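dumping this here before i forget
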Amino acid sequence: SLPAMAQIETVVVTAEKRAEPLQNVPVSVAVVGSQALQRTDINSVSELQVLVPSITFSDSANSRGQGLNVRGIGTQNFSDGVEPSVSTVVDGVVLGRQAMSIFDLVGIDRVEVLRGPQGMLFGKNSSAGVLNIVTRKPDTNGDEFFGSATYSTLNEVKLQGSANLAFSDDAAANVTGYYLNRDGTGKNKFDNSGVNDDGQWALRGRFLYNPTPQLQLLLTADYESIDNTCCVLTPRSASPVYAAVIGPVVASLHNRDANYDSHTFLKQHSGGVSLEADYDLGHDTLTSITAYRGFHDYDNNDGDLSPLPLIDINNATQSQSQFTEELRLQSPGTDRLKYTVGAFFFSQSVDSKTRQSGTLGTPNYLGSNVTRSIDTTSYALFGQATYSITDSFRFIGGLRWTHDKVNSWFERSNVTGAVAGFLGAAPMARTPIKAKDNNLSYKVGAQYDLTKSVMAYATLTTGYKGDAINLLNNLTAAQIASGQAVLDPERAKAYEAGLRTEFWDDRVIANVTGFSTRYKNFQAQSFDATTLNFILSNAGSLRTKGVEADVEVQPADGLSFSANGAYTKAQFVNYTSNCYPGQTVAEGCSGTPARQSLAGATLSNAPKFTYTLNADYDFPVPAIQKVGYLHVSYHHTSNIQYSNNQNPNTIQKAYGLFNASTGIETEDGKYALSVFVKNLFDKHYASVIVANSLFAGSYNQILPEDSRRLVGVSLSGHF
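structure:
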């Protein structure tokens, strides 16, 4: 027989709010553990796409516009009244704003990417999927200390530390913190300052207490601070006029420098506290998660990306607070009927103020101040059950009723000293905008064990994201009066079927999932270059369909291979959008105002093919009483269209990234030294490409940190 140590370890997930082996769960889930994050030097949520092909990160000029896509579906917009389609959940707590999910992954036990609508069990706004992040719990088995220091390209210094303190058999605590500082990826030639540098730090503390054998309490508190020059776009191509204006910067696909006169920055702070209580009732378990979180953002960028005062101020201040309560009752996973029922409450308040000002190429100074507020209240009752008709065949069913209520207001005034509002926007007195809606979502399915190590399932699931409010700067009184400021809820219907297999004495795991999801009233944002305005509207309907596959092989002790891939076809079914700059009638642009049909067009940031290949080898080094490892990986992405309006100049061509790391540690595991390289072959790519609307024929881009070769070394201690 094969040695037991050569078998793949069982991966446990909480994709259905209970701890279960991944291979038993009838949901498409990709899991990234702490070791994978460490060996690939993946630090942030934005980098997860390198490890999980079905997820992509949408970059933007600030964190408020950034977001995640799953299976090609996500939310990219600047309106405070639109919530994400991909929900981020940290230790059971839903994050209400997509910018709140842009943080470093430190002290993580695992990251679960749940693909497809997950609103049945995961609370608010998960019509496309869930990023479920689970941090390390305190351990009552003993004290433990860990610390590491990393230095890499761009003078990046990263310090991490954690301490686990076991006070007794019933109480323990852990504290985790990190500090990161990195030079900019380029220079602003206007004042020779750095652009796209990074500076952040965070602390998280967790306290575990079992006052009785039946009751467990877990208190968590965290705080994070980010202060950087995110997210400067640099000239990619330039018209003769723009080329003359931005000199000495030369626009090119590889250009990382810029020339602009407005101070660019991002100052972001977030934190919260939660209390999870689990009470064993004898048969069922009652769980309560009570949480409060706060988020504050202050950012500015140069809207014209030049040294001219066309848009010299383009800033925002946003403050958010939320309170959530989840109460659920759960049966044991060993019963013929296993169920989870519960209630969820979500209350969020967002207040923001934005200012846009500049000459826009006129002799006059123009500017608008916009203030807005939005309060969201959501209630939900939910239940999901699995009934084993036989030992091999199970039926799945679930319902979730949701009530959403939104109260907001919008106000706009001219900037002091401005002769008129920005882009001609007229002042508007404080005007209320309200919306409310009820929804009943459901899930039905079946699960069948073909053999002891092969499971098949099929499900039909509906998803829901509540009403959105258009609170963009260019909102008009006419839009509010006609009801156009309120966007209809986003609804999804998803068909999914999958196989979960294990064979060769558990040395091989091979999973495959097919899916087809139809979205109705997708809440989409586009940019109209003719009016310089963002447009927020329901996009009719769209469909995403495809196949996902995950394979892991461990042929020998210490040697493992894995491959993950996805084919995703995410397209608009019917959607009329603004034209891209220079689009002709022959290319589908017509009418007044000019519009185009995007039926059959690919969604932005939705590559058709993505895959990742990994190999790990752990080996002893007896001569020096050490243990070593070698990790190599390759991630490939096909062409990416970064504009919903299908601009041929905003396509990032296919690219692949080769990463590797190697390290050695003492046999007792106390000390370790590792070296890593990201993007070994220095492959260039842009994380976003946009048209410069003020300089026709010009385009700008963001080149992320790892769009060049990065080399680093890390030293750690574990006691």
